[in-house]
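Hi R.,

Here's the chain you asked about this morning:
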Amino acid sequence: MIDKRKKKQINILPDCLGLSLTFLIVLFAESLFLFLLAVLDILPAKFVVVIILILVALDVLVVALLNSGKKETYKRLLGLILSAVVLISLNFGSFCLYNTYDTFSKISEEKVQTEKFHVIVIKNGSYDKVNDIRNRLVYVSENETKTYKEAKGKLVTKVDVEYQIETDYLALGHKLVDENGGKHDEIIFVSNSNYRTISEDIDKFKKKTKILYTISVELKSNNDAKRIDVTEDPFNIYITGIDVWGEIDQVSRSDVNMIMTVNPKTKEILLTSIPRDAYVELHTFQAHDKLTHSGIYGVDETIMTVEDWIDIDMNYYVRINFSMLVNLVDAIGGIDVKSDFDFKSAVSEYTYIKGMNHLDGRAALYFARERKAFEEEDAQRIKNQQIVLKAMIKKVTGSKALLTQYTQILDAVETQMQTNLSDKDISALVKMQLKDLGKWKIRTISIVGNGAYKSTYSMGMRELYVSIPDEASVEAARKTINSVMYPIEDNKKSKDKKEN
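And here is the predicted structure, written out as tokens:
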């Protein structure tokens, strides 16, 4: 007997070409999304498994709806709507993943800083274009760095000039504007950092002078990271904040100097602040200067100087500027900080009350920069810098900001932050945080010093205000850093001492 009953076939693709193409497009979008997810590797395995199960379930549902009989048009329509929703979600997810990968790559790519050098002359003087200084005498500083030497060579190639050395940058500035405000029709050639210093020290220097010509010189970082497994081993990150807006590749003074010690096992972060005016020996030049001035010789000089001085290794560094701080604080919806005083910023319109303040990006910047309003000046500024950074870390790691403001955070750091953390290091840290969403214990300490006036390498024989580091506080900082990195060893030593 022949069984005339028709066997029911299971179709993966709908019998309609248009519906089949719709499902294939969804599958392609899923494949792209999962590929980017695997490459970036920022989600813990449990999240990835959940995402895959959801996608499989949606695929089964879409296939079932699209394979409905021709009479069940509403089911096919529902299948098309669900396909569209899935497709839009996958495209958005792929965009976020690619944007994340691109941002991580940009901030961790090979570091090149750009130092600018300016030919400066008097306004309304004899020189209107660079060719006007051909065969003229140009005054330069006696402190010759590698980039300064290269810039002078480029200027000679452009227009044949003769150089004459001055002892310090203030003397260079006075070649154009003297102590009494008189103007002189001379020519000087200085770095952008020192042009800014001269402009701060000589009244109305910027108004009375003009930049005739600028030469840019690239300064590559040779400071290779001392890499470790950032999810297993303790490490130090040197945070250097430069005093400029805009692009991060500018060479400038290191106004914020902080060591972030991270122990991923104990979930502890230690922020050790260093006075910007700390009087230290520069690594390369073996001469004393303010720590902030080390930044004008590049981030490598700052890091190596601090390593020599405090005798600890910096595994990585993060270099930020004003723009990055403002944009990042705005991206996470502002921060809440507790001020020790009522005060008004000396360089902006912002005022702060004693107690809790909710700050947007610019308010946070001027809160961290202020010193003149306080009796302790720089010591209080360091405390406020720690307060701001601590509030930012808590907001990102202890709230939904990392998820809800994700794309805004990426945009904030993309072009205004440099680090020698690799993209894999950054991905691993994000993955670790998402895995347990655990809160970090954050401690702060500071190295202190005593005010004095000393000559500095970068500014010549002219005496400037400096902070002579208190050796006891330096030693205490070194021990505290080591105790955070290696708490078991530290506890063992303490136990041994008690037993003896």
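One quick note: Confidence is low (pLDDT under 50) at residues 4-8.

Cheers,
M.
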